[in-house]
Amino acid sequence: MRNKRNCYSGIGGQAVLEGIMMKNKDQYAVAVRKPDGEIEVETDTYHEVMHGSKLLQIPFVRGIFNFLDSMILGMRSINYSASFYEDEEAKETAADKVFNKLFQDKAEKVFTGIVTVLSIMLAIAIFMILPYYLTSLLHDHIRNDSLLAIIEGVLRVFIFVLYVLCISFMKDIRRMYMYHGAEHKCINCIERGRPLTVRNVMRSSKQHKRCGTSFLLFVMLVSVVLFFFIRVENPLYRILIRIALIPVIAGISYEIIRLAGRSNHILVRIISAPGLWLQRLTTREPDKEMVEVAIAAVEAVFDWKAYLFETFGYEVDDSWLKDEEDTKEQEEQEEHEDQEEQEGKA
Predict the structure, then answer these.
(1) Could you say which of 19, 92, 214, 217 would form a disulfide bridge with 32 (CB–CB 3.0 to 4.6 Å)?
(2) In angstroms, rounded to a whole number, what is the distance separating the alpha carbons of residues 98 and 111?
(3) Secondary structure (DSSP) of 81-110
């Protein structure tokens, strides 16, 4: 095997309700563990908002559209996974009927677009406007604009971390964090050159430098720097410039996270460290059933055997995988026997 570590694979994803979405180039798959225990996998093609445009090749500009695409695809995937857990007795409301009649077969896409826009507006209000408002209350007591800019930045990061921590106490979010860990483990397993088996995935790290959590933290940190140097006196203009700079912040943050996913340089590792620390809150150790769902999502859009051969120089045959499955069955049998023994002693 070649001596390579953390080789970029190009795949990424996110956790959804009782499942995983994995994306490779234009193809994506959503794997969901249904209430009956079976794994349902749907594959489809996603074309970017600016599909085919040369803007997607321009550094600092492409990040703006990539962020928007991730929001749209993420919302679409979550809606799909939630459909397996909707109340079957729920009746269609009058508003639903009007909405479906107006937009017909495009109703779902329009709904996803509306929710995405509202989500962005809410995020701007909470993480951009609220810190500025709270800091403005100190203006009569602190005359130093540089100090106020630092306080605003600290508040922004604090509110973001507090938000992540608070939602982690929700039952559904806790399970999504476990699936989030399974997603990272699968990608790390592949990019470390290990065959994609449940055993190897469980042994892999649940933290990854290209995580969306790290991206959002970079957004907060980059905004601190920009707002420190770009200032205006008028309060209204201060709010408007914070909103106007969001695409710039997203573009810079995207380039940082993109570099982090492709380089293992010491400086990149230092920059990535805060995001990896925050992932301790947004990822949790998954169980084996969750890992099976993540593997199903990966295999639907990514030929990991070909990747290992091309990148690490060795071929994984079916006999090797059979040995892994036998080892897995033996371990499960031993766990079952240990459990029965403990129950007998009790």
Answers:
(1) 19
(2) 13
(3) HHGGGS-TTPPPPHHHHHHHHHHGGGHHHH
In this prediction the pTM is 0.85
Strand-strand pairing, 39-45 and 27-33:
antiparallel
- Among residues of the chain, what percentage have pLDDT more than 90? 59
160: left (phi over 0), alpha (psi -120 to 50) or beta: alpha
Among residues 182, 231, 184, 233, the alpha carbon closest in space to that of 208 is found at 184
Residue 115 banded pLDDT, cuts 50, 70, 90? confident
Those residues with Cβ within 8 angstroms of residue 257's Cβ, 6 or more apart along the chain or in another chain: 209, 210, 214, 215, 218, 275
CA–CA dist 28, 49 (Å, integer): 15
Q: Give the whole-angstrom CA distance, residue 251 versus residue 107.
A: 30
pLDDT tens profile 85-98:
876 545 666 666 66
pLDDT at 44 over 50: yes
pLDDT (0 to 100) of residue 140: 84
Q: How is residue 273 written in tokens?
A: 């460290």
Distance separating alpha carbons of residues 129 and 238, to the nearest angstrom: 10
Q: Is 194 in a helix, a strand, or coil?
A: coil
What is d(CA 40, CA 27) in angstroms, rounded to the nearest whole number?
Answer: 17
The 10 Å CB-count burial string (b at 16+, else e) for 269-285 is eebbeebbebbeebbbe
What sections of 137-245 are H helices per DSSP?
145-167, 171-191, 198-202, 212-229, 235-244
Q: Which residues contact 83 (CB under 8 A, 6 or more apart)?
A: none
Assign residue 5 a region (left: φ > 0; alpha: ψ between -120 and 50; beta: otherwise): beta
Say if residue 264's pLDDT is above 80: yes
Summary mean pLDDT of the chain? 86
Amino acid making up residue 169: F
Q: How far apart are CA 340 and CA 338, in angstroms?
A: 5
Phi, psi of 168 (to 5 degrees): -70, -15
Task: List Cα–Cα distances, 174 to 52, 66, 207, 323, in angstroms.
Answer: 38, 26, 16, 33
